[in-house]
Amino acid sequence: MVEVFKIGFLSVSLLDMIDILLVTLIFYKVYTIIRGTIAAQIFYGLIFVLILSFLTQAANFKALGWLLKLLSDIWVIAFVILFQPEIRRLLVLIGKNPFVRMFIKNDGANAADIISEAAFELAQHQHGALMVIVRSVGIRGVAETGELINAKLSKNLLRSIFFPRSAFHDGAVIINNDTVEAVRCTLPLSSETSINGSAIGMRHRAGLGISEQTDVLCVIVSEETGTISIAEHGQIKSGLSKEGVRKYIINAMHASRKSGFQTFWDALKKINNRNKTETEIGS
Q1: Interatomic CA distance for residues 268 and 262, integer angstroms
Q2: Boundaries of domain holding 172
Q3: Which of 93, 171, 257, 259 is a good FRET partner for 46, with 20 to 30 A between their CA atoms?
Q4: Contacts of 269 (CB under 8 A, 6+ apart)
Q5: In this structure, is residue 149 part of a structural domain?
Q6: Would you say residue 21 lies in a domain?
Q7: Same-domain pairing of 187 and 232
Q8: What is the reported pLDDT for 185?
């Protein structure tokens, strides 16, 4: 390896510089995560021990090096035990990274469980609800009609939002993957005022209206009857059970991903066929 520069008896190559940079970035990232916690003080002590160990090896201090080696043999186990909450938080942040999520299979089952359970419990108390589940394309314009919160999806959060005395219970909730993007959103109303001869209220018309205009699922809980309905592609299905809602959401999300892949594959085939045609004409 080509030597870049030399400090005393240490020669530094380009590979060494890259190695030092990567280690520095890792330590900095860990520091930003645990900064302000009790673990930060332990982290400072760990860095001191590592630096001291490196210096003793460079200076060939055998006795001190032996003592520090005893500490370094168990530091990995100690690190995992001491920094367990921080490591869990780091892994969660890594898992939420869009690049990482491309390689992780996520069938939407967890979100479907949360939404179906929340809808069922809201229906039991006859608390009206309107939950819009984003599929292939975001609906940022609709989300901006309400209040953006970007909170982690949970059953208790949905129940709290649609509690009749809550400040956010009016309007719709926008759900994207495992995040509640916005609350108290205004949805476009469908021109339909009845289904199969039965009149529908404003909440159902709003759910039907958004499903007519965008690629979403809309879970509707009736305040009057406590029934659960799902609107999709301008159609509405009513009288669903908790398990029925869960299965419907999972199947619809699977179908959306397959449809998106098929559209991409069809586009590639069209480009390939067009190139073949142009080649044949040119020849």
Answers
A1: 10
A2: 109-263
A3: 93
A4: none
A5: yes
A6: yes
A7: yes
A8: 95
